[in-house]
Amino acid sequence: MKKLAIFASGAGSNAQKIIDRFKNHPIINVSLVVCNRPDAGVVNIAQREGVPVLMIERDRFSKGDAYTSVLEQAGIDVIILAGFLWKIPARLVETFHGRILNIHPALLPAHGGKGMYGRHVHEAVIAAGDCKSGITIHQVDEFYDHGAHVFQTEIPVMPGETPDTLAARIHELEHRYFPAVIEKFVLGADSPIDLSTIESLPS
Ligand code: GRF
What we know:
With about 200 residues, this protein is of the alpha/beta class.
């Protein structure tokens, strides 16, 4: 069994889609949700779905190394960042080298880096006059939004687009692709999943 830990700070709509995809999966299991905000929507989702929640505290996460061993002891194989806003500390990146994925709601390397999350990203895309945006799923290294790209897909920025309309369309894209890309990533290159078939999956 391959065990996933989902790190999330917010509403958790991506976490929900990931949990849904791997319910009763023969190889992949969502074993843990890691969260830094007790009032985050993702906590309710995890509780409802029966996934254990690890609440983390900033100094122990960023300065100490308290949680790496917790994740190792829980047998976590892959970490999925699904709307997690804190930078991943070096020790955790080292320990899970090549086994941490993040989703970013734009076409990196454009519109990434510190402070570029949520609405800020979509405002920047529109302010730049970009004709397209999209999602980037990438491996995580010690820099914000910097690791190797695993998957990108794009949509046009429409005339009259606002940060809210763009955010909603990007969210749909995330829900449609992220769980399937995780599955392919975790199962490895020999997996029979063809990403071109994702279009036909229910979103
Ligand atoms: C997503 O847009 C993701 O790209 C960003 O944070 C958002 C999380 O949304 N990093 P949700 O909590 O999964 O609804």
